């Protein structure tokens, strides 16, 4: 997760390379989930989480925040969430309504991007609440996978997995609502600025 600070147009940075590596891991992760290689899938997800933390730390420490990184980082998070939802839904670990509820939020926010572009803005920065939601979801999904096992940890992992998933879903939608509010504020300020320029 990238921090705040000066943002450059650089592409060839270590954080961007780590984000690209995370993106390449998405199809591998989905294949592992669909073929019920749960231990390996959880390992891929853990590596993804570590590189997510590492790229943010490097970006902040060595001032390597970039515009492409601001796109790659949340994109990787969303793709891992989507890949996990597809795999868990196909395997009947989570119900279809749960998956549709999370996907609907991302579809809603995707519809705001053309509006932002029309007013000369790129994607709005990721809110802390969105990061917290992503953390909860990506912590809950591996536990739901582990909950499918017949071992003694299965029931415990299942309970904690759903706790993280439900809380993460609530935060995910809350963060989405705050994004919409932020969008309205940006557009209102833009309209005010345009009216001020026109009136001078």
Describe this protein's structure.
With 200 residues, the protein is an all-alpha fold. The protein has a single domain, classed as CDP-alcohol phosphotransferase transmembrane (TM) domain (Four Helix Bundle (Hemerythrin (Met), subunit A)), CATH 1.20.120.1760. It is built from seven helices and no strands. Helix 2 runs antiparallel to helix 6 and helix 4 runs parallel beside helix 7.
For the termini, the CA-CA separation is: 42 Å
CATH topology: Four Helix Bundle (Hemerythrin (Met), subunit A)
**What is the number of beta strands?**
0
Oligomer: single chain
Biggest pleated sheet: none
- Helices, by number, come to 7
Uncertain runs are none
Provide the succession of SSEs.
Answer: HHHHHHH
Helix/strand structural class: mainly alpha
Considering the protein shown, what is the CATH homologous superfamily?
CDP-alcohol phosphotransferase transmembrane (TM) domain
- The helix content, as a percent range, equals over 70%
Whole-angstrom Rg: 19 Å
Kindly estimate the percentage of residues that lie in beta strands according to DSSP. Answer: under 5%
Q: How many structurally independent domains?
A: 1
CATH class identity: Mainly Alpha
């Amino acid at each position: 997760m990238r921090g705040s600070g000066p943002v450059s147009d650089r592409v060839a940075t270590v954080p961007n390379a780590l984000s690209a590596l995370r993106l390449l891991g998405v199809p591998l992760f989905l294949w592992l989930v669909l073929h019920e290689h749960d231990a390996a899938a959880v390992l891929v997800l853990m590596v993804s989480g570590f590189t997510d933390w590492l790229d943010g730390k490097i970006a902040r420490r060595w001032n390597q925040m970039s515009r492409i990184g601001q796109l790659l980082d949340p994109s990787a998070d969303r793709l891992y969430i989507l890949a996990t939802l597809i795999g868990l839904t196909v395997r009947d670990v989570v119900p279809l309504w749960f998956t549709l509820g999370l996907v609907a939020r991302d579809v809603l926010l995707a519809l705001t991007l053309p509006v932002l572009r029309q007013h000369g803005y790129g994607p709005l920065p990721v809110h802390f609440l969105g990061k917290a939601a992503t953390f909860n979801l990506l912590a809950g999904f591996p536990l739901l996978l582990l909950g499918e096992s017949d071992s003694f940890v299965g029931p415990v992992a299942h309970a904690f997995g759903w706790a993280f998933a439900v809380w993460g879903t609530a935060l995910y939608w809350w963060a989405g609502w705050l994004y919409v509010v932020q969008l309205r504020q940006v557009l209102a300020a833009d309209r005010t600025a345009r009216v001020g320029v026109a009136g001078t």
